[in-house]
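Let's practice the habit of predicting before peeking. Look at the sequence and jot down your guess about where helices and strands might fall. Then scroll down.
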Amino acid sequence: MMAQYLEIKEQYPHALLFYRMGDFYEMFFKDAEEAAQALDIALTKRGKHLGEDIAMCGVPVHSAENYLLTLIRKGFRVAVCEQMEDPAEAKKRGSKSVVRRDVVRLVTPGTLTEDSLLEARRHNFLAAYAEMRDGAALAWVDISTGAFHVMPLAAVKLGPELARLTPSELLVSEADEPGLRALGEDFGISLTPLARASYDTASATKRLTELFRVGTLDSYGQFTRPEVSAMGALVDYLEITQKGKLPLLRPPVREAMEGTVQIDAATRRNLEITHAMTGGRAGSLLQAIDRTVTPLGARLLERRVASPSRSLTVITERLDAVDYAHSNTRTAADLRALLRKVPDLDRALSRLSLERGGPRDLTAIRNALSQAEQLAARLGNASSLPQLLAKSAHAFSGQEALHALLDVALVAEPPLLARDGGFIAKGFHEELDEVRRLRDEGRGVVAAMQGRYAEETGINSLKIKHNNVLGYFIEVTATHGDKMLSPPLSERFKHRQTTANQLRFTTPELSDLETRILNAAGQAQGIEQQLFAQLREKVLEAAPALTQLSQALAEFDLATGLADLSRSDNWVRPKVDMSRSLRIDAGRHPVVEQALRREGAPFIANDCALMPDGPHSAAIWLLTGPNMAGKSTFLRQNALIALLAQMGSHVPADGAHIGLVSQIFSRVGASDDLARGRSTFMVEMVETAAILNQADDRALVILDEIGRGTATYDGLSIAWATLEHLHETNRARALFATHYHEMTQLSKRLSGVENATVSVREHEGEVIFLHEVRMGAADRSYGVQVAKLAGLPDSVVARAREVLASLEDNARKGGGNPRAVIDDLPLFAAAPPPPPAPNIPPQMLAVSELLSEVHPDDLSPREALEVLYRLKEAAKG
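Done guessing? Here is the structure:
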């Protein structure tokens, strides 16, 4: 056995080998040591190899999925090795014969299909990158849903696209792997190098045409050599990991970068589009707007919010769909009630295609078809629907025959695994019903046969009995022996044994019944397996139509979910056109507003008007004001509103006019990159450089505190030059927040720049944040007041006020170098700590408190006496 293990392990040196032994997957040698540590399970030993103990650990087959998930998340790959024959068959070859085993699947981060290993509301993409002399391309697939996409891209655009897709695993050529290793680490993506042969375009073309059973790929689009290479590498890897059982992939969809709003990795992180800064989904835009009720709709929402469209036609269609659901409240509520019962059609279909599906996947298809028919009935005439929903509604019908077949064939609540049986409904298959009757009601069947034989022979005392030697037999008393041994009964009943008082017989019918009863369980399981395979084939024949149904269900779920959000949170439809305006009336930050609402606090809405084509031609707002006043929130909310509009959603505002945005750039917040030796300021400059080098005249740029990570004059110079570049060269729409008040003078020199500020109010030395944005410039930053709010010691705050007053006085008088002012300031004098409180007994404190309340001149003699008594009691404690 160990020789077989080592032989199989040699073929998968970079994966843990799950070696099936009965009810366990066993691991040996180094695999066992690594798995035991990763899974926190016992490490034992089994025999010796080359004089050394063989390390061993194992996990139960029935709970292997949980262990697989842990291993995959910790960066392992797992080769699942199953027993390919019954142990009884192996024994026929000899007592020492080893059960034949082989790897049936290589489990990797990008090839998961089980529900327990996947997040229902997220895609799990496997991507492949191909770079050639004539360009580069990225292809990606979700084998759990069948989605298959490819796009050409420049090498420098790989990072932003990986940030958009967040694949679990990226396939790269062996030659490219060293240069891309850091990128994979940055995004937390498992990098898998493939041999150059996997990227050969001729072989790739052959693989793809065979997969989709077409003579040429031209029917799916005109693909470049790098695109074909990347797609071919994906298919090759799937053949390797799935051992030839390819998933049910949809024809490849070619995407173009110019079709979606370009958002780089830093901007996605800063805006917290699909993930919050903490890394989870909570606190992100996606989490805040997700009202979908199906996994299908949730994954579509994630795709839309990660890839807003730049097509005015597409955006308008999506907005029309949301408008319909928003206006038809009752219909939308009924549709959502029906959609709540829709299972994950895509993933059920994928598992069935990979032969990993079970009875519950068939019932998922059945239930989805049932809900689709009810949706069609509720919608009635689709002609009243907007175009996007009308096209989708056609997919709700047309599979009535398949639905009827699955409905009559399957029980309501089937088991998880086909081998468990019991999922075919009674009455669907006559032979199966008979076998089950024998299996479950054997005694009743025998009793019925006994009654027939008693009636046929006229012997009422005839019995059918069973023992371990003869099996089933017919028994009569000796008094009826002659009758049974004489024609015509002797021709039907064959004598088997005579005892002192009984005679025993059998019939061909009884022997057959005995065989069928003994084999009934196995026969029932075999018949159900055959029926499962037939039903699976029927479902796969309808796969294209089921894929369209899945997309239609997702579209309705998303439209009704966004409409529900719009109604409950008072959102409006934005006007999106080809202008370059960005006007938002009373805009709100969707995530912050929800957080404040949970605390019972209001969100202060604000307007924004970047109107490069208007009479004032103001494309840039220069925003000043103190920290904590809401500048960053204001910057982010306007970028998110533009993003929401172009993904096809209503927006959190009283009104919005969005001129089509091509790119969104954000430089907000401070962070360092110690692993690459980058300071906070260096990271800031790298991200700012990326914006200035890429932003076009349709970009929307939000910048916060450029230059703050270095010396004052250096920072001011960089911020000044950055704003001028945005205005003169990029000509982009921008919100530019700064504490450098000197920059407000630029509004007089640059025609497209206007000053705006976040209002505050100062009262008795305290600052009150109003969170209101108005036109104009702030006269100060209120940094000292904010420092006091943060809890700095009073002595530090007082010293800061002293230094600030001297510097401001010097500036008002036209003073020169501020260093001279600093040199003239007295040294910092920390306030002495307060003296320790004296150790006063509690009784004396009570007496002191009473005395403080006494006014001797106002007391009568009697009142004075009462006070004296009270003081005496207080002193006693």
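How did you do? The first helix runs from residue 2 to 11.
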